[in-house]
Amino acid sequence: MSIITITTDFGIKNEFVAVMKGVILGISPAVQIVDVTHAIAPQNILEGAFALWRAASFFPDQTIHLFVVDPGVGTSRRAIAARIGSQYFVGPDNGLLTPIIESAEQIGSEMKFIHLQNSKYFLPIVSRTFHGRDIFSPVAAHIANGVALAELGAPISDPVRLALPKPTKTESGWTAHITVVDIFGNLTLDLPSSALQNRTAVLFRLHQAEISGVVDSYGQRSPGDLVAVVDSEGFIEIAEVNGSAAKRLNVNVGDMVEVILSV
Predict the structure, then answer these.
(1) Cα-trace Rg, the chain
(2) Which residues, including other chains, have CB under 8 Å from residue 98's CB and lie 6 or more apart?
(3) What is the pLDDT of residues 199-225, one digit of tens each?
(4) Nearest Cα to 54, choosing from 217, 207, 198, 181?
(5) Do 112 and 180 share a domain, yes or no?
(6) 147 and 178 part of one domain
């Protein structure tokens, strides 16, 4: 049984996600559909990129990842399908795959990209506003049915790539960036815990707030305290115990965090 994941900024108020699932099941009835998230901030490609990147590696080989965060729908931006390592990806060519591509490059994984041009694998009528329904969902379903990437269009070698924020070494430590704001208002940084060199005497500064030290768990501080912990992926996370650091500090994905390593 094939697996198709879906990542969008559509939310769940309207019928958009259900319609995409209906299209998929109409073409590939036995497929298993998994929602990654539909709560990406509207048009926030960077947030979508980090969400899919953090999720994709936990899925089995041959999983098909369908992503639709698509502010360029109806323009000249390309529609693409890709095989990166052992998994497939289908969506707009707007840079959302950048962190997945970079991770694949680091380990030497094989990659193949296709500009989706064969309308045989689209819905009969393609709108200018809902390619998630009309192009990407049917293509993902056809891949699940065994259609080869080569049948879907022409190969390309230049997928759009985002200029991802990356931690920068400074004289006193690091300048890091927020890459994820989760449902609890916790803030994941692009700084791996290894960058702290096993130090716990660390100062984090963002939006006039200061957080001192790294604790093992939220429960080691009192409700309302701001803390730094190591998240489940091994990155530094800023949180408010029993609260929302995002609301308290009024921050967004991409905001900078100063990290000072004490001597």
Answers:
(1) 20
(2) 49, 161, 162, 164
(3) 778 999 998 899 998 888 898 889 999
(4) 181
(5) no
(6) no
